[in-house]
Specification:
single chain; 402 residues; alpha/beta; Aspartate Aminotransferase, domain 1; 7-stranded mixed sheet; 4-stranded antiparallel sheet
């Protein structure tokens, strides 16, 4: 019998990182501005921009830092209202609060994507939008961009879970004004912590670079190859913006850079694993994996599915029975402190938002890690556990007439 797979460990850091890490440990050269040019962080920014097909990239301490800097670089006024999906991680509305703005939440459907009717209704009174591609699920970016462009509202993409995902063949994170990615240990590329933002907007990136902590003329060390447009932006904003010191260090960049060539393979394997498990889970009358939208090609390292026709008691019994057999399933709405359930975000200004559709979805939405490195027997073990537990929980309750 296949042992319960470990779904939490990341893939090993590529051997190619070792020599550069050893060099830095010997020299102590960890600060991105020590070298006059082409520090590991600078090279990472260029390589990541090339990977995504963007003009510019800025590596920072986390995806939350990237979101915060994106909002500040847009020059939004204090208390500007920023529209955010009701299904996301608490760090996303937190970045809005950190930027002295006000989060406005919109409804999300059973397929984990933005409810477009509610989005459009709430768009009338906001100054910016963060589209959170939560767990890598892409909302209708065609409609979102058309609605926002018509109103002159800038769109920030929270692509923490979406490195390698495409929409009509275009990389997620490059569709809005700016895209933000994560290098936290559970993401496709792992540095323990870290983030990066991409954009084609030279002035926005110039502002973000300075605010990230490019004091004096260290902004010049951010670009392997510069140009007149962004140099003009740096000259325009030097000494006119606060320094928040959210920089990435060279050691993190040395860990990240050798993983970039692995992205395509991880995306391919992760998608194959997800689709195999999804097809089997969908054979159960009690489990439902929503279909992706047509233009989307996902890069999943986890799977989400809804429990169909289960009561609160049955939902808890399902999660407990799966955990007892070694398969951890998170049900977003059941925990009293889950950071993905909007009613737990007590830092939000005002009363808890009324999002009945999102709340109902979160009470039955299940989340299980499914890293790309899992083998076929390990996938089968996870699937058979989930299918078996669902059947047993529902059979037992039908026998008792509940």
């Amino acid at each position: 019998m296949t042992a319960t797979p470990n779904v939490y460990d990341a893939e090993p850091i590529p051997e190619a990182a070792r020599a550069e890490i050893d060099r830095m440990l010997q020299s102590g050269d960890l600060f991105r501005y020590t070298a006059p040019e082409n520090a590991p962080v600078t090279l990472l920014e260029q390589e990541f921009a090339d990977l995504l097909g963007s003009k510019y990239a800025l590596a920072v301490s986390s995806c939350s830092a990237a979101l915060f800097l994106s909002l500040k670089a847009l020059g939004l006024p204090r208390d500007a209202r920023v529209l955010v999906p009701g299904f996301t991680f608490a760090a996303v509305p937190s970045s809005v609060v950190h930027a002295d703005c006000v989060p406005v939440l919109c409804e999300v459907g059973e397929n984990y994507r933005i409810d477009m009717a509610d989005f459009e209704a709430r768009l009338m009174d906001v100054q910016a939008v963060i589209v959170s591609h939560m767990r890598g699920h892409t909302s209708d970016m065609d409609r979102i961009m058309a609605l926002c462009d018509a109103r002159g509202i800038p769109v920030i993409e929270d692509a923490a879970h979406s490195l390698g995902t495409t929409w009509h063949g275009r990389n997620i994170g490059t569709i809005g004004r700016v895209g933000c990615f994560s290098f936290q240990s559970y993401k496709l590329v792992n540095a323990g912590e870290g983030g990066i933002m991409v954009s084609d907007d030279a002035d926005l990136i110039a502002r973000a670079v300075i605010m990230s902590g490019a004091y004096e003329h260290n902004w010049a060390k951010h670009l392997a190859a510069s140009g007149p447009e962004i140099e003009a932006g740096f000259a325009r904003w030097q000494n006119r913006l606060p320094l928040y010191n959210l920089r990435l260090n060279n050691l993190s960049a040395a860990i990240i850079r050798p993983q970039l060539p692995e992205v395509a393979r991880r995306v391919r394997d992760g998608r194959a694993n997800h689709d195999y498990v999804a097809a089997r889970l969908n054979t159960s009358p009690w489990l439902s994996v929503p279909e992706k939208l047509g233009p989307e090609e996902r890069a999943p390292d986890s799977i989400q599915f809804n429990l169909v026709g289960l009561s609160d008691q049955e939902t808890r019994a399902f999660a407990e029975a799966a955990a007892a057999r070694g398969v951890k399933v998170q049900i977003f709405g059941l925990s009293t402190d889950n950071a993905r359930a909007f009613w737990n975000w007590q830092f939000l200004p005002g009363e808890t938002p009324d999002l009945p559709q999102t709340r109902a979805m979160l009470m039955r939405a299940c989340d299980a890690r499914l890293p790309a490195r899992l083998t076929q027997p390990e996938l089968d073990m996870i699937v058979e556990t989930l299918l078996g537990v669902a059947d047993e929980v529902m059979a037992q309750n039908r026998a008792y007439g509940t």
